[in-house]
Amino acid sequence: MCMSGSATSCEECLLIHPSCAWCAQEDFGRGRTLTSRCDFSQNLQKRGCDSRFIEDPHSSISVLTNMPLSSKGSGSTQYDVIQISPQNISLSLRPGDQTWFGVQVRQVEDYPVDLYYLMDLSLSMKDDLDTIRNLGTKLALEMGKLTSNFRLGFGSFVDKNMSPFSYTAPKYQENPCSGYKLFPNCVPTFGFRHILSLTDKVDRFNEEVQKQMVSRNRDAPEGGFDAILQAAVCKEEIGWRKEAYHLLVFATDDVPHLALDGRLGGLVQPHDGRCHLNDQNEYSASTKMDYPSLALLGEKLAENNIFLIFAVTKRLYVIYKNIRSKVELSVWDHPEDISLSFTATCQDGKPLPGLRKCADLKIGDTVSFNVSVEARGCPPRGTDQRFTIKPVGFKDRLEVLVDYQCDCGCSRTAQTNSSICSSIGTYNCGTCHCEPGYLGARCECQEGEASSMYLSACREAEGKQICSGRGECSCNQCLCYESEFGKIYGSFCECDDFSCARHKGILCSGHGECHCGECKCHAGYIGDNCNCSTETSSCISDDGKMCSGRGNCVCGRCQCTEPGAFGDTCEKCPTCPDACGTKRECIECRLFNSGRLADNQTCQRLCKDEIITVETLRTEDPSAVLCLYKTDHDCVMKFTYSEHASGQSILTALKEPECGGGPDALMVLLAVVGSILLVGVVLLAVWKLVITIHDRREFSRFQNARSRARYEMASNPLYKQPVTTHLVETDFSMYEKSYNGGVH
């Protein structure tokens, strides 16, 4: 990097890179090119350069004034209140060498406050004038809660007393309200009038307000910006104190005129940003200059540390507390060749890179800022550079003086017509700068001299061309030709900075430097033409995996190894086994705000696919993959995953998962009980039916048997009559003996 061949002096070497150093030792590098004196410091020492002769300056900081921060604003020390530390520093910057310094800011308690009340006295404000009659007393009571050192001032405005902004007819000069029935009397129109300088006598404020009367202008906008600028820049007349907070309360009911509005009245001269109050404390240039621009107004308010407050209904002390709850650094007179970056450390102690503001502070809190500074170049010699860092609205500031380390220390002892340089050159930092017409390390030769001895010294090897055919041999050394393609250099003009491999027509792919036919790649690149990046961040997929776990990162690009995978990070793969699982998480978080990616920011970052919701999912597309998964509620969610020709992934999903109707426990219970009862009844009925059929069958059989039995009583061998008749022959006359049932 340092030995690129472009540096022929110490100053040129230091500008190449902040790590480059120059060896000013006289006998260093003999037989080498001049550029060999420019290298890293450690390399120069390894090659024999004594550290005493090495020019290697670094950026440094010197604190000139660093008074401690104050803790209280009022009292005997109010004129010496310190709210920023340090107060003065000096920077010695080497171009490209970044350094830093710290700044502390504290808003002290009980700091003095100057409040100037600027009121619109146009006719539309007549009702508000009654409202502020006792405003001074109220303001003093409110602000007394935050500071014991409070002063009030008062001023008013209407508009430019000229057409078309005001009524200019003679009858309106003394009373612009003449003929206006609703309010027939008012005071003449005026631009801005300073009425009461800042004072701690609140009664004076109330008295002056009591005396005020409204005026009248023609158009709706007012001349408020004229008044604001005069109140800001007329510091002595208003009475602004250097050691106080400056609050300018602006009360109006309409928009103000802006720059260029004055041209309607023929005012072409821009506002000069200066104070123009006459002996009557009125704005004397109201009809001579245009209204101020917003940029000019902002510049003057910041320059004089004035907070502009547009009157609102909230209590003023609340607004003041909000103002004091913030600390923001601003930079004044920032040199163009110096870059600044800020890191804020607020009350939580966490560094916030890129921020120069802290909020939500309490009065008395201390905040810190780290300021990194780097010079991008060297200004003309003798340029005095300085800039200022100040908290917005504070009088305190940090003055920064800048000195550039663009000259080498050894240059201060340069010797003109030195004997080391054959008395025809200047010896400076170890090298000779020859007078025109002379050459050589010691100016020992004249241009045009040539001999066989000199010519042999200009060949890299026997048989090679003199100076590689790309230069002339003069005084024992090669003078290389100039080329439209780049630079030819080297002891034998054997090297150049353009004969290197290219990629897409760009030398060393734009990621390296061509040195003697070889690409020297910048950090993060490799390869013959430096087209291969070693950076892998471009291969990290949204889920944090290298090439989505489906490929390898080669030269900063993913080479997908999984069949079917494609995309910048192999993130697209409808045919991969895990495709459905990957897309499922996006369906869950995007449609139902559930799942692992339910956090809104994570879901938006990882799930950028287009999701289409449908009532019925069609699966006719052969290129679409159907995915299903079971939800936490035992439902089935279906979606298809496909890749559009534009390269965008498209997910088509059901609006709601498919769920079977859940059983009603009561109905199930009733159904089971009913079924049991029904089965019991059926079984009983069947049993009854079987018994009945059986009984009827048996009865029928009995009846049949009975009907078939046709016995007579007498013919029944088993039956005997209960009465038996016997015929007995006796001596007696025959008689008949009967018995029945054993009775004779």
TrEMBL record:
Residues of the Integrin beta subunit tail domain: 580-664
Transmembrane segments: 665-691
Domain Integrin beta subunit VWA: 9-408
Residues of the PSI domain: 1-50
Disulphide linkage map: C10-C20, C13-C49, C23-C38, C177-C186, C234-C275, C346-C358, C378-C627, C406-C410, C429-C467, C434-C443, C445-C458, C473-C478, C475-C508, C480-C493, C495-C500, C514-C519, C516-C547, C521-C530, C553-C558, C555-C603, C560-C570, C573-C576, C580-C589, C586-C659, C607-C635
Listed InterPro entries: EGF_extracell, EGF_integrin_1, EGF_integrin_2, Integrin_beta_N, Integrin_bsu, Integrin_bsu_cyt_dom, Integrin_bsu_tail, Integrin_bsu_tail_dom_sf
Location in or out of the cell: Cell membrane
GO molecular function terms noted in the UniProt entry: integrin binding; metal ion binding
Entry's Gene Ontology BP terms: cell adhesion mediated by integrin; cell migration; cell-cell adhesion; cell-matrix adhesion; integrin-mediated signaling pathway; stress fiber assembly; transforming growth factor beta receptor signaling pathway
Integrin beta subunit cytoplasmic domain span: 688-735
Keywords, sorted A to Z: Calcium, Cell adhesion, Cell membrane, Disulfide bond, EGF-like domain, Glycoprotein, Integrin, Magnesium, Membrane, Metal-binding, Phosphoprotein, Receptor, Repeat, Signal, Transmembrane, Transmembrane helix
Membrane topology, record value: Single-pass type I membrane protein
Family: Belongs to the integrin beta chain family.
Name of the featured protein: Integrin beta
Organism: Dicentrarchus labrax (European seabass)
